[in-house]
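It is worth pausing here to work through a concrete case rather than discussing structure prediction in the abstract. The textbook approach is simple: state the sequence, then state the predicted structure, then interpret. We follow exactly that order.
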Amino acid sequence: VTHSIPACIGSMTINSKQLDNESPVSVFAVNKCYVTVQDGTFFDGSGFAALVREGYKVRSDVNITLEFRTTAVHGVLLGVSSAKVDAIGLEIVNGKVLFHVNNGAGRITAAYEPRGTNSLCDGKWHKLQANKSKHCISLIIDGNLVQTDNPYIQSTSADTNNPIYVGGYPADVKQNCLMSKSSFHGCLRNLVLTKGQQAELFDFSRAFDLRGVFPHSCPGAEH
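Step two, the predicted structure:
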């Protein structure tokens, strides 16, 4: 077994001596236990999860689905970039959800604006689906579809080769399709990226870099 247990552990004794959990010598990706816990991964607003170390290739088509829960009106959801301009990005800005795509010719954005500024940032679960099919992009939030026109119809492939950053990204990493630098504060679950018939569910506990992210541990209410 090479990954940690998604659980709470308390009152541990070794040779009849109780260990002091409050002042550990070192600590990594350990959060407090919650009275009520939901399925999901908790992002504390300070970091990110990095997936696919060798780089994720978006190319012509990708369908992204996830569920999020937050009370913050700003936050990065997901970004995949390249060293050039090609990239995709999902973020919450001023309570709106934005899906940006740049296939090389220029950035286009599908924006979902809820009726109330805080209606997506109400601490409840919301379903998101972002779809890129060649030059066409769409965004579905809680069943509401948003599409946008793309003037760059000849440019169809986002030639990305960097990791997938979720919930934020390091300061020294360039993201060509994200405006926000704010790390996500809240919970995410059921992140699936689908290309053609191949769907991949990402387990945050297997990320190659985790900062301020607690897999399988989502507090039942904002604390």
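Step three, interpretation. The chain has a mean pLDDT of 91. Residues 80 and 172 are 14 Å apart (CA to CA).
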